[in-house]
Protein 1
Amino acid sequence: MSQHIVIDPVTRIEGHAKISIFMDDAGNVSDAEFHVVEFRGFEKFCEGRPYSEMPGITPRICGICPVSHLLASAKAGDAIMAVSIPPAADKLRRLMNLGQIIQSHALSFFHLSAPDFLLGWDTPQAKRNVFGLIAANTDLARAGIRLRQFGQEIIAVLGGQKIHPAWAVPGGVRSPLTEAGRTRIRAWLPEAYATTKIAFDLFKKTMDTHKKEIQIFGNFPSLFMGLVEPDGTWEHHGGKIRFTDSSGSIIADQLDPQKYYEYIGESVQSSSYLKSPYYTPLGFPDGMYRVGPLARLNVAEQMGTPKADAELKKFKKLGRGRSAVTSSFLYHYARLIEILACIERVEAAMDDADLLSEELRADAGINSLRGVGVSEAPRGTLFHDYTVDRDGLLRKVNLIVATGQNNLAMNQTVAQIARYYVKGNKIPEPMLNRVEHGIRCYDPCLSCSTHAVGQMPLHVQLIAPDGTVLNEIACG
Amino acid sequence: MTPVLPKSPSGLLVIGYGNTLRRDDGVGPRVADAIAALALPGVHALACPLLTPELADPVSRARVAIFVDAAVDAPLEVQMRKLAPADTSQIMAHAASPATLLALARDVFGHAPEAWLLTIPAEDIGIGEELSAFTRRGVESAMEEIKRLGSGERSPGPPL
C-alpha cells in the first residue's frame, strides 16, 4: 500500500505550511507537495480602494519585505498615471531596494539558515536556531544582526522608518537622501564589506563539507527567471525579463515585465493557498521556473560591480560547462553575492549628487486603466497588477510573488530530499531536518505569497495512494 | 567568543511597538513618538511596528529599556512589569518578543538592561488610525509611568 508523509508545521520560515509526501505501492516516494494553509486575501479586499493608497496598504502584507511591495506598488501607480518618474526618484527607489535586499538576505543567511549548516542537521531543533548559533559563534551572530541593521538603516534613512515606510508614491518618492543620511550610510560600509567576507569564507567551507546537500537539495533542471539590463547585467528594479533553462541557454529575453500575462500563467491547486505560476509557452507543470537569487545569477551575465563580478565567475563555474547552477542549496551562495553587489552599488550611489535632488515627483491623473509594477524582491520577481476605473478606484488586483513562483520547485525539492531518506513507512528524523532546510533555501515568505500571518511551524504527512495517512509528525 | 560589551550602557530607551493602522494596537508607537517629542534628557524613544532582531543593539546600549505595547483582554489599567531575558531556546524568525530581544542583547551584544513591559489596555483593534477614548486615557498614565522611571522613581510590578 502506498503512503503519504506530512510535515506540519515548517519552522524558521515566514508563515504556516505543511508538507505531504506521497508514496507508491513499492514504498518509494512518488511525489511531494508544499501546502500553504493560511489565507489573507489582500488581492480581494483592496478592491474599491484608490490606487494611490496601495503603496501604503500593500507593504502591510509583510514585515520582512515591505519595501518590495512598496516599490512594485508605486511602479504600478506610475503606469496608471503613464508618467516617467524623475531620475532622482528612480535612483532613490533603487537605493532603498538595495537596502531591502541586504537586510532580508542577511536575515535569511545568518539567522534562519546558518544554524542548520553550521550547527549540523542532527543538532536538536531547540538548539538549531539563532541562539544556538550565538552559543557557537557569537561574533558571527552579531555580524549578521548588524549587516541586517545596515540594510534597515538605509530604509530608515530614506523612508523615515525601517518597516512599512510610506515613502514611494505613484509618480516618485516623498523625500530625498539628506547629507546626514548619506554620512550615516557611508559609515556602515567598511563593516558591511567585512561581514560579507566572513560569510563568503564560511559558506565556501560549507560547500566543501556539504557536497551531498548540494546534490540532493533541489538539484534538478528548471527554467530560471529574473530581470536583466539590455546587456544581460543583473538588475533589481528596472530592466526586462529573461528566462534561461538549465543548460544555460536563453529561451526568452527582453520580455516586457508589464505584459507578464503574455508569458506567465497561474495554476491553482485545491490543497494550497499558494498559486503556482508557470511559463506559459511550456504549459503546466513543464513551465516550472525558479526566481530569486539563484535564478537572478543564472540569468545574469555580469553583476555590474567588480567584487560581485569576481564572485559571479566563481559561482558560474559550479554549473557544468556553460550550464546553469541548478542546486537550490546554492541559493545561499547566490544570496551572498547579491549582498556584495548591493553594498558595492550603495557605495557607488553615495557619490551621486542626484540623490539629494528635490525634483522627486511627477504628477498626473488617470491615463491608463491598467498598470503593472515589477521589481526584484529579495526572494524573486514581484508583480503588482492593478486595474482601475476612471476615478482611480481598484477594480482588480493581481499580485504574483516570489514564493508562489518557486512553489513547483519547492515541491520537487521536498520530493528529491524525501526520496533520498525515506524508506518504508517511517519518517526519519534526518529527513525532517533536511526537508525543512530544503524549503528554507528558497527563504519562502508565506505572508506575501498568500497575501498570512504568524510563524511557520511544520507538519509532515506520509500518505498512501488511497489517501490513507500512514504516518505524520508535527514540529515547531 | 566573548561578546563585545557596550562602552557604557546609559540612558532610558523607550520602544513602542504595534500596528498604527489597527487603532488601539498602535498605542505603543504613539507613546514612543510622544516621548520622543518631549526630548527628555537621557531618554531615547523608538516607534516600530514590530520588534526586530537588530533592535538588540540599541537595547544593549541602554541602562533601562521600556517596551510599550497594547494589551487586549487584559486588566483595565496600565501595567508596568519587570522583564527578564527569555529562555534562549526560543525560536525567532523576523520578529521577536521583548524577552527574546533582551536575550539577544545579552548574548550577542553583551548587556541586557534593566527592562520593563508597559502595557496599555486596548479596546478596539479594528482598522483605523484613531485611538479609542479609553486607550487615549491609558496613554496619559503610561507617559507618567515612563517619566517616573526616567526620573528614577520606579514603579515596581510583578515580574513576568
Note: The CA atoms of residues 189 and 336 of chain A lie 15 Å apart.
Protein 2
Amino acid sequence: MPQSSSPELIDDETTCPSSATLRIANGTSHKLDQAVLDSIAESLRVPVEQLSLSLSLAELKVDSLQAIELISELEQAFAIEVSDGELAQLHCIGDVLNLVHSALMRRGDKATP
Amino acid sequence: MNAARRVVVTGMGAISALGLDATEFWSSLSLGRSGIAPIEQVDAANLRFKNGAEVQGFEPTRYFSESQAHALDRFAQLGVIAAREAMANAGVIPLDGSNEVRERAAVITGSSVGGTASIDRGYHELYAEGRRKMRPLSLPMMMANAPAGAVAQEFGFGGPAFTVSSACASSNHALGLAFWMVRQGMADFAVAGGSEAPFSLGNLKIWEAIRAVSQDTCRPFSRDRSGLILGEGGAMMVLEPLEVARARGARIRAEVVGFGLSCDAHHPTRPLAEGQARALRAALNDANIPKDRIGYVNAHGTGTMANDATEAQALRSVFGDHTERLPVSSTKSVHGHTLGASGTLEGVATILALENGLLPPTVNFTELDPKFDIDIVANHARPADAEYALSSSFAFGGMNAVLAFRRWEGASSS
C-alpha cells in the first residue's frame, strides 16, 4: 500500500546527512543532474548556486504544497511518474536528484527534456 | 428583532452514491454498503486514481424537462432534487400562507467549485475543438449559486438567498448561517444545504495533482489510510422556528442547537488541531451544552493522513476523558467526499443516526492508527442512545464549521 503523501503533510524536522551523495554518479549523468537542479531552482524560486545535495527541503522552507508542486514540475519536464510513496521519502535536494534518476531508469531511458 | 428562537429541521433530502433519496441513503449507510466504485462519467485511463462515489442510475429527465436539464449543470440538478425532497418531506409543497411568508423564506446553499463540468466542457470546445463562441448558458450553469437561484425560483421564495463557498465546509457554513438567520428572526423558513458534481476530467486532474485522492478506497482513521475518495451529491434541509413547525403540526426530525466556526489561519491545505478544536468548542458554546452530553460525532474524516491525525487530536483536546465514551464515525467511507455537499449530507446522516438510535459505521476500517485515542464505529453500525451529536467540516483554507443537533423526542422535547 503506497503511503499517502497528501498536500497537508510534510515532516518539519527532516534532516539530511551532510555527506549525502548521488546514488547514481557517473560522467553521463552530469548534464542531467544540472538540468534537474535548474528545474528545482526554477520551481522553488531560488538561485541554482544555492542548491547543494545535502540541503534539506525543510531548510529551504519548502512546505508540503510546494514539494508537490516541485515534483509535478519534474514529472512534466522529464516525462516521469513519481508515486505518493516516493514523494513521502524526499528530504533533501540529493533525494530529489536520485528520484529523477530512478524514475527515468524505470521508464527505460535517460532522456533529457 | 425577535428574541432567539428554537430552530428545528422538518425536512431532509439527499441524493448521493448511496441512492436517489434520503431513504435509500440511510438503507445503505446503516448497513455500511459502500457507493465507491470505478469512475464512469470520465475515462479514468490517464488518472492516477480510478474510483469515485457517483450517483448511480441518475436520469436527469426523470426530474427535469429537456430544456431545464439542458440549462442546469449536474451539481445544480442534484441540489434542486435534494431541495424538492426536503420540501416534500416537510410537507410544504406548496408552502402555505401569504406572499409575506414566501417573501421571508430563505435559500442558502454551499458549493466548492460550482458547475465545473460545464466550465471544463466549454473551455475544451474553445481551446481544443476550434469552436469560436462559448455557449451562452455557460455563465448561469457554472455559477456556484445556480442551485439557490433554481430552488428559490421553483418554490417562489423571495427572501434572502445566497451561496457560500468554503471548499469542503461550504454546506456546513450554509446550514449554520440558515440556522442562525431563522433563530434570530431574519427568516421564518429556510432551505439550506449543498451540492457538488466534481466528475469532469479537468477537475479530476486537479485533484490528482494535489495527491490527496486514494488509489484504493477511503479508510478514515485506519493506520493504512491512503487518501480521500471523491463523491458527488446534493443534500438539503428545511429549517423552521419550533413554534411555527408545531403550529402547523409538522413532523420534527431534529433540533439544530449549535453552530461553531473558526479559521486555522495557518496554511492553505495543512490542517491545525487547535483551529479545529476552536470550532468544536464554539459549537458547544453556541448550543450551551456540556461536552459530556455529546453522544456521537460524524467526523470530517477524509481518510488523508493529515486530516484524520489532526482531527483525532482536536477531538481529544476538546473532549478530554469523554473521548473514550464518544463514538466517532466518518461516513465518507461509504458516500465519498462530496466536497461542498458533504456538510449537509453528513448532517442528514447525523440526524438519521439520532432518530434511529443507530450510529452509521466507518467502513473499510482495518485497524486504528495507533497514534489515535478515539472510539471509531468500525465497519458495523452501533446502537446508541445519543441525545446530542456533532457534524464537523474542516476545509482547505483552514476553514472549520461544526453543527450540533439534538434528537427530537416529540412532546417530551420542550
Note: The two ends of chain B are 23 Å apart (CA to CA).
